[in-house]
Automatic annotation (TrEMBL):
One of its GO terms (molecular function) is GTP binding. It catalyses: a ribonucleoside 5'-triphosphate + AMP = a ribonucleoside 5'-diphosphate + ADP. It comes from Sinanodonta woodiana (Chinese pond mussel). Involved in maintaining the homeostasis of cellular nucleotides by catalyzing the interconversion of nucleoside phosphates. Has GTP:AMP phosphotransferase and ITP:AMP phosphotransferase activities. This is GTP:AMP phosphotransferase, mitochondrial. Its EC number is 2.7.4.10. PROSITE patterns: ADENYLATE_KINASE. HAMAP family: Adenylate_kinase_Adk, Adenylate_kinase_AK3. SUPFAM superfamilies: P-loop containing nucleoside triphosphate hydrolases (SSF52540). It comes from the Eukaryota. It is an enzyme of class 2 (transferase). Belongs to the adenylate kinase family. AK3 subfamily. The lineage of its organism: Eukaryota, Metazoa, Spiralia, Lophotrochozoa, Mollusca.
């Protein structure tokens, strides 16, 4: 049975392909994308009081305080009254999920369950040519000469963000923080898990599932 409105959340660890899947959802279903990161970046760009307050946290790599992000998101959700939406990047903490629960009904939570080993393998293979920003991958897009930029022959470096140790730490932090959020939605029977290694493997399952909840914009067949 299709719902008139679908209020959904998408969750997934960094590197899980959440951006790719969100983009495809928005393309195929009549839903508005609401990304907390985008909302914050736009506030910072416009130098609003909220944006200026958020900047100090974000620059230090911290989450912004629950109250701040909650105010921003609830303002955005008010504008989306009567529309279907897909929340991305929010809620990130248990207090945020509890507050959202009181504020707006949530119909379902899509969780992308990509094995951590796969994410680590994928990211740690990335090598960058720092001056140009060109990115290579030892497996998927290797340079012609190992360790050298194709155009200039200059050495490639591994960005701090792409080092195995950094990726592991990021994933651990994500897990620690979001486990209570996932449990919260599991207890409310709203959590729908999609397991797979690649976006192209996960996407048909997400599409199929969402099609049972909300009418797609047009019919697409996935084999
Ligand atoms: P993102 O683009 O989702 O990675 O968000 C960029 C930054 O904005 C994060 O690193 C956090 O500092 C902040 N942020 C985004 N969403 C939230 C949230 N739900 N709670 C707290 N901080 C957030």
């Amino acid at each position: 049975m299709h719902m008139k409105l679908l209020r959904a959340i998408i969750m997934g660890p960094p590197g899980s392909g959440k951006g790719t899947i969100s983009t495809r959802i928005i393309k195929d279903f009549p839903m508005k994308h609401l990304s907390s990161g985008d909302v914050l970046r736009s506030q910072m760009l416009n130098k609003t009081p909220a944006g200026l307050a958020a900047k100090t946290y974000i620059d230090q790599g911290h989450l912004v305080p629950d109250k701040l992000i909650l105010t921003l998101i609830s303002n955005q959700l008010k504008k989306l009254k009567g529309k279907s939406w897909l929340l991305d990047g929010f809620p990130r903490t248990l207090p945020q999920s509890e507050a959202l629960y009181k504020l707006e009904p949530v119909d379902l939570v899509v969780n992308l369950n990509v094995p951590f080993e796969i994410i680590i393998d994928r990211i740690k293979g990335r090598w960058t040519h720092a001056p140009s920003g060109r990115i290579y991958h030892t497996e998927f897009n290797p340079p012609k000469v190992p360790g050298k930029d194709d155009a200039t022959g200059e050495p490639l470096i591994q960005r701090e963000d792409d080092k195995e140790e950094t990726v592991c730490k990021r994933l651990e932090n994500y897990q620690k923080m979001t486990q209570p959020v996932l449990n919260f939605y599991r207890e409310h029977h709203l959590l729908e898990e999609f397991t797979g290694k690649y976006s192209n493997e996960i996407w048909p399952k997400v599409h199929q599932f969402l099609s049972t909840k909300i009418e797609p914009l047009q019919y697409t067949e996935y084999s």
